[in-house]
C-alpha cells in the first residue's frame, strides 16, 4: 500500500467503528496511534523528498536557460558569418533545451499540487492523531476502572470469601476443642497449679489472637 493511499484510509477511518469491532480496545488504539505516527513520518519524509526534487529541477532549468542563451549566441555568430545552416542547427539545440525546461516546469507544477494535497493530509492526520490519543487516555482509565470493579465483585462473591469463612470455622472449632479439653481436664482431677493455669491462658490467647487477626483482615477487605 502506498503512503498516500494509506493516509487516505486512516483519514477516512471512523475510530469509533474500529474500536467497537476490537476485542481489546486499548491494544487496538495503540496500534492505530502507532500506524498514524509512522504514516505521518513517512508522509513528511515524502514531502521533503518532493521539495528537494523541485529544487533540483529549478537548478536544471536555470542551467538550461544558460544553455539556450549560449545556443542563441552561437546562432547569431553563425549568421554573422553567413552560415545559416549552422545557425539553424544551433537553434534546434536551443529548442531542445527549451523543451526540456518546459517539461521540468510542468513537473514542478504537478509536484506543487501533490505538496498541497500532502499538506492537507498532514493536517487531517494530526487531527486524527490528537483524537486517538485523547481516546487512548479515556479507554485506559475506563478499562482500569472496569478491572477494579470486577476484582471487587470477585472478592465479595468468589471462593476467597468462602475460604476465609471456612478458616474462621476451623479456628472456632479449635477454640471449642481447647475449651473442651480444659473442661475435661478439670473433671475429677486435682486442682491445677498456677503455672498450668497460666500456660492454658497463653495457649487460648494465641488462638483468640489469630482469630481476631483474621476477622480484622476480612473487615479491612470489606471496608
UniProtKB/TrEMBL annotation:
Stored InterPro entries: Phageshock_PspA, PspA_VIPP1
Coiled coil: 87-135
Keywords, alphabetical: Coiled coil
Gene Ontology annotations for the cellular component aspect, listed alphabetically: cytosol
GO biological process, one term: phage shock
Domain of life: Bacteria
Pfam families: PspA_IM30
NCBIfam families, per the entry: phageshock_pspA (TIGR02977)
Record family assignment: Belongs to the PspA/Vipp/IM30 family.
Official protein name in the record: Phage shock protein PspA
Species of provenance: Sphingomonas montanisoli
Gene that specifies this protein: pspA
Amino acid at each position: 500500500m502506498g503512503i498516500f493511499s494509506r493516509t487516505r484510509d486512516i483519514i477516512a477511518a471512523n475510530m469509533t467503528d474500529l474500536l467497537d469491532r476490537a476485542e481489546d480496545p486499548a491494544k487496538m488504539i495503540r496500534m492505530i496511534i502507532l500506524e498514524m505516527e509512522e504514516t505521518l513520518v513517512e508522509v513528511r519524509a515524502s514531502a521533503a523528498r518532493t521539495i528537494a526534487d523541485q529544487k533540483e529541477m529549478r537548478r536544471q532549468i536555470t542551467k538550461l536557460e544558460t544553455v539556450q542563451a549560449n545556443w542563441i549566441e552561437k546562432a547569431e555568430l553563425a549568421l554573422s558569418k553567413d552560415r545559416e545552416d549552422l545557425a539553424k542547427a544551433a537553434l534546434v539545440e536551443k529548442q531542445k533545451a527549451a523543451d526540456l525546461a518546459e517539461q521540468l516546469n510542468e513537473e514542478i507544477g504537478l509536484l506543487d499540487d501533490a505538496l498541497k494535497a500532502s499538506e492537507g493530509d498532514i493536517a487531517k492526520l494530526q487531527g486524527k492523531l490528537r483524537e486517538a490519543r485523547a481516546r487512548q487516555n479515556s479507554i485506559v482509565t475506563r478499562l482500569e476502572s472496569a478491572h477494579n470493579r470486577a476484582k471487587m465483585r470477585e472478592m465479595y462473591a468468589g471462593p476467597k470469601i468462602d475460604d476465609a469463612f471456612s478458616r474462621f470455622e476451623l479456628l472456632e472449632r479449635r477454640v471449642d476443642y481447647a475449651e473442651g479439653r480444659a473442661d475435661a481436664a478439670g473433671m475429677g482431677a486435682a486442682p491445677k497449679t498456677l503455672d498450668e493455669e497460666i500456660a492454658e491462658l497463653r495457649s487460648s490467647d494465641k488462638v483468640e489472637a489469630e482469630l481476631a487477626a483474621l476477622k480484622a483482615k476480612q473487615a479491612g477487605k470489606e471496608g
